[in-house]
Amino acid sequence: MSPREILDARFPDAVGGLVAGSTARGEDTPSSDLDLVVLLSARPAPMRSTERVQGQLVEFFVHTEDSLVSFIDRERRLRRSPLLHMCAHGLIIRDHDQRLARLQDLARDRWSAGPTPLTADELADRRYRLTSLLDDLADEDDPADRAALAAAVFTDVADLALISRGRWSGAGRWLTRRLRDTDAPLVDNLVAGLSAAVHGDTRLLTRCGTTELDRIGGRLDVGYERHA
């Protein structure tokens, strides 16, 4: 079944529908799942549902106009928004009254604007957290604990490198995909550093973290304060 046929069969009263992910980019494979953003006027939206349709895994992201904007705003505060990205880059396959087109224009404007900058307190918190992770990594002898710390440093450096440059962050492979578009050498160094750290050599991963800290104000431990 085509995405339009799946939408019509599952949500015949949908106001709008949008295909996202690899299918929208024309990069889908026989094993790819299908991401569908569905716009309804009322219940059962908002909801999310994962179903299998004729052997294909389909993920439905079902919203009203108000809930879609609300969910996007909630995700934007995290400086990563899968739903915003889907709406901004997806392919509209149904749209009554141009409501979904207007929402897509809004999503594209917000995606282009980028995430809100880190506040001074948030930046201090992130510097302190990464400093602590790097210190723990340098002192860790247990292989399992060192691997866990190395993974945490990898993720923290990548996320901080993106949002401190005014770029959207991401989770999983989207974290490294977005960082590769921003600083490809850093991705290569982080991957190499993570592999080396798992095998006992933490120097490269530590250099990656230290370099990012130096770019935003340096290490922070003594003198850090936070009041409730």
Overview of this protein structure:
With 228 residues, this protein is an alpha+beta fold. The chain folds into 2 domains: 3-113, 2-Layer Sandwich (Beta Polymerase, domain 2), CATH 3.30.460.10; 120-215. Helix content is 56%, strand content 14%. It contains 10 helices and 5 strands, in the order αβαβββααβαααααα. The protein has helices at residues 3-10, 21-25, 65-76, 82-89, 99-113, 120-139, 143-163, 173-182, 184-198, 203-215, and strands at 16-20, 34-39, 47-53, 56-63, 91-95. It has a 5-stranded mixed sheet, sandwiched between helices. β3 (47-53) and β4 form a beta hairpin. α6 runs antiparallel to α7 (143-163) and α9 runs antiparallel to α10. The chain is elongated, with a radius of gyration of 21 Å. The termini are far apart. The mean pLDDT is 93.
